[in-house]
Design a protein that fits this description.
mainly alpha; single chain; 2 helices; elongated
Length: about 70
């Protein structure tokens, strides 16, 4: 998604949604490690970690755009 062409109000809405998604994913990952770490496959953990990286990059990009405006 090209965040540069998105207006400020929409960017803030997207940012909130991404932050909630990030928190949920981090919580899910923590719960999985805490309670079921013996049952989680390495591939699943890597998928969650990659999703976390992607979300953090999107959030950082939106914050960067918002800080300029």
């Amino acid at each position: 998604m090209d965040y540069n062409s998105t207006d400020i109000v929409e960017l803030k809405t997207i940012l909130k949604r991404l932050q909630f998604e990030l928190e949920d994913l981090e919580e899910t990952l923590n719960i999985n490690f805490t309670y079921t770490s013996a049952h989680i496959g390495g591939r699943e953990v890597r998928k969650v970690e990659e999703r976390l990286r992607q979300l953090k990059k999107k959030i950082a990009r939106i914050n960067e755009i918002l800080s300029v405006n």
